[in-house]
Specification:
Elements: E1 2-7, E2 13-17, H1 22-31, E3 35-36, E4 38-42, H2 48-59, E5 63-66, E6 87-90, E7 98-99, H3 101-104, H4 114-121, E8 123-127, H5 140-147, E9 152-156, E10 159-163, E11 173-175, H6 184-194, E12 200-204, H7 210-221, E13 225-227, E14 233-237, E15 242-243, E16 246-248, H8 253-265, E17 269-273, H9 281-289, E18 294-296, E19 300-303, E20 315-317, H10 328-335, E21 340-346, H11 354-361, E22 366-369, E23 372-377, E24 385-387, H12 391-403, E25 407-411, H13 414-417, H14 423-429, E26 433-438
Parallel strand pairs: 2-17, 3-15, 4-16, 7-8, 11-12, 20-21, 24-25
Antiparallel strand pairs: 1-25, 1-26, 4-6, 5-6, 8-10, 9-10, 12-14, 13-14, 17-19, 18-19, 21-23, 22-23
Helix pairs in contact: 1-2, 1-7, 4-6, 5-6, 6-7, 8-10, 8-12, 10-12, 11-12
Bound molecules: ligand EPZ.
Length: 443
């Protein structure tokens, strides 16, 4: 088990490049189950969740090979990572249809193989993902959508057993709104399944996250007939077969936002290159309103040292293009050094505040009531040992540790390794003092 040992109080400065997006890569990898022939992935981020997805695909019969590996099949998913992220994935039409609990419990996004397995192989057995510290995380809308395509769904002993009609899935219409907006992976699951269903499908109240748009564009390059991916209504004309293609994973908007908030929290000057500024319009607007200098180019964003202490601003998380729940913890960490009171509410995951107690250990003044956190700043942060609890909470603790005076030890950084590629190296390249160490006591 590793920890990060951070010496805080130094402004970050320099240029860093965004990695490929975890949340775009996972459904794109699952989509390879739909495709005849190989798909070549570029800019795959080297993350634990990506390795888990590759392991799951291998268990479902996928063959992996590296572009520069002479074409030989890779035994272990871990061998697939690294390098320029060029990886070839080939999924046969026939093969296993079980996604085992052992993998699904590690990563909820495993559920994204449900739709492709049903569509291409006619059946699927996927363990129900458990909840996690950020919330209950049901998949009722995924199942509702697949049932609308004619699938028979049973849930027994914690396993979803889904069966397509004898002639295959049939086009259908489904309204996918959840109480907060829509479901990202649920939209991906239903859209993927509908590409091979007979006839026309419509998804109303679809998730509009950029990751859905990227998935729809890729599937259309593979021969699908999808209209409206990235908007609230998606129309899909089913086709007989889809072929593999090549895809470059788009930049990770949450990693980019995390690095920019780390820069603002340390009053530094950081440029993130290779990112997609339009996907972070909500954060750019917040920086402007709180008077943190932020410039943007076609594929870069730059935060510069603020002259006057930024004003604390209220934030409520919303579906895209609203403020993303995946930046809520990082925004809260930034607010510790802002002037005034801010209310931060998470309408998507009301329980996603495990980072509050740990930020308060560093000196923050945050109080919580249900899905709402109230923070009064600025509060001088002083380093201390803290415990990471989930992916984005870990990032918030790193940000706070970089802003705090003295030493902060963030334990259980395996949470961080799920979604941030070489974060300590990137922060180090920006002048931050972060050292990864073995931590026997972190358990
Ligand atoms: C995706 O998860 C992201 N993960 C999450 O990022 C992100 O927080 C979330 O979308 C919201 O933006 C990936 O893309 C791999 P949801 P997903 O289905 O699709 C309710 C990170 O940190 N809901 O959109 O699993 C649910 O309770 C991760 O990178 C239902 O009610 O999230 C929640 O309130 C964490 N029924 C909301 O919708 C369903 O069937 C969001 O869930 C499905 C969801």
């Amino acid at each position: 088990m590793d920890c990060f040992r951070i010496q805080g109080g130094r402004p970050l400065a320099g240029t860093v490049t965004a990695s490929g997006s975890k949340n775009a890569a996972l459904p794109l990898l699952a989509a390879s189950l739909l495709l005849e022939g190989p798909t070549r992935f570029r800019r795959l981020p080297d993350l634990q969740d990506i390795r888990t997805m590759l392991e799951l695909l291998q268990g479902l019969g996928a063959r992996l090979s590296r572009e520069d590996g002479g074409g030989g099949e890779l035994e272990a998913a871990s061998a697939a990572m690294g390098g320029d992220g060029g990886l070839e994935v080939t999924c046969p039409a026939a093969g296993p249809t079980d996604a085992p609990y052992e993998i699904v419990r590690r990563m909820r996004a495993s559920v994204a193989v449900l739709g492709p397995l049903l569509a291409r192989r006619g059946r699927a057995r996927v363990s129900l993902p458990g909840g996690c510290v950020i919330g209950v995380r049901p998949i009722d809308l995924h199942l509702k959508g697949l049932a609308a395509l004619g699938a028979t769904i049973q849930v027994r002993h914690g396993v979803v057993e889904a069966e397509a009609p004898r002639g295959g899935l049939v086009g259908g219409q489904v309204y996918l709104a959840s109480r907060w907006g829509s479901t990202v992976l649920g939209t991906a699951n239903v859209m993927m399944a509908a590409t091979l269903a007979r006839g026309r499908s419509v998804i109303d109240a679809a998730a509009q996250e950029p990751e859905i748009q990227a998935l729809g564009e890729f599937l259309n390059r593979c021969g699908a007939r999808i209209r409206g991916a990235g908007g609230p209504r998606i129309e899909i004309e089913g086709v007989e077969e889809l072929h593999g293609d090549e895809v470059e994973i788009p930049a990770d908007r949450i990693e980019t936002g995390t690095l920019l908030l780390a820069a603002a929290a340390t009053r530094g000057e950081v440029r993130v290159e290779g990112c997609i500024p339009r996907e972070l319009a909500v954060l750019i607007d917040l920086f402007e309103r709180s008077e943190v200098p932020c410039e943007r180019g076609p594929d870069w964003l730059q935060v510069s040292p603020w002259q006057r202490r930024p004003r604390a601003l209220d934030v409520t998380t919303r579906p895209y293009p609203g403020f993303p729940t995946d930046l809520q913890a990082q925004w809260l960490a930034f607010c510790t050094l802002c002037e005034g009171l801010a209310l931060v509410s998470d309408t998507v995951y009301p329980d996603r505040f495990m980072h509050v107690a740990e930020l308060n250990r560093l000196g923050a003044a945050i109080r919580r009531e249900g899905g709402l956190a109230m923070i009064v700043g600025p509060t001088p942060l002083s380093g201390a040992p803290v415990l990471a609890s989930d992916l984005r909470a870990s990032a918030a603790l790193v940000i706070a540790g970089l802003a705090a005076s003295g030493e902060t030890v963030v334990r259980r950084v395996y949470h961080l390794d799920r979604g941030y590629e070489r974060l300590e190296a990137k922060i180090g390249a920006l002048g931050g003092l972060v050292r990864r160490e073995l931590d026997e006591d972190g358990a």
